[in-house]
């Protein structure tokens, strides 16, 4: 066994609340999002984990979530590395559109394909495969080596940038990833083996509220 990797999707954002495609747009957390981050922090505190480093994206909703977690677990001095490689999938021309309006315009099935398929990009944006093409190398070169050295690493990022990581960690294929949704503010604790496979996974909260 080597180290521990904790992944957490940011708390609810203003645009999650308004049901808008967000991608690289940069809305802040809602009050509920702040509460979700604090609840996630409390759950992490109860595990007794002490982190060595934290990674987050260049987007405010993930950075604020991380700040709230660091505060909640009493590790405000944790070194933080921010990188746009961990940003949400770029939703291209869909960014800013209402998801229900998009369903009315293009149909339920097409919108689900844009949101959850592996390799169908929304117009002007990134597919999950494109997202993985930047998230995976970053994980392999910057995050995984630390976990393999035995460090405890926290990553606060986004629904789809984390879904691309879950494909590696949970060994999900392009069909299986279709039905994976991550709830906001719910930490996932992975213990990794020395060969970088997953020894155990624990979800600290209710993932079923994700949609
Ligand atoms: O809008 C977005 O950027 C993402 C995450 O909120 O949405 P979806 O879950 O539809 O991929």
TrEMBL record:
Substrate binds at residues 9-16, 22-23, 61, 88-91, 99, 115-116, 159-160. InterPro entries: His_Pase_superF_clade-1, His_PPase_superfam, PG/BPGM_mutase_AS, Phosphogly_mut1. CDD domains: HP_PGM_like. It comes from the Bacteria. The record marks 158 as: Transition state stabilizer. Keywords: Gluconeogenesis, Glycolysis, Isomerase. Pathway: Carbohydrate degradation; glycolysis; pyruvate from D-glyceraldehyde 3-phosphate: step 3/5. One of its GO terms (biological process) is glycolytic process. GO terms for molecular function: phosphoglycerate mutase activity. Its EC number is 5.4.2.11. The active site is at residues 10, 88. The keyword Isomerase applies. It catalyses: (2R)-2-phosphoglycerate = (2R)-3-phosphoglycerate. Catalyzes the interconversion of 2-phosphoglycerate and 3-phosphoglycerate. NCBIfam families: pgm_1, PRK01295.1. HAMAP family: PGAM_GpmA. Belongs to the phosphoglycerate mutase family. BPG-dependent PGAM subfamily. Homodimer. This is 2,3-bisphosphoglycerate-dependent phosphoglycerate mutase. It comes from Hoeflea phototrophica (strain DSM 17068 / NCIMB 14078 / DFL-43). The gene is gpmA.
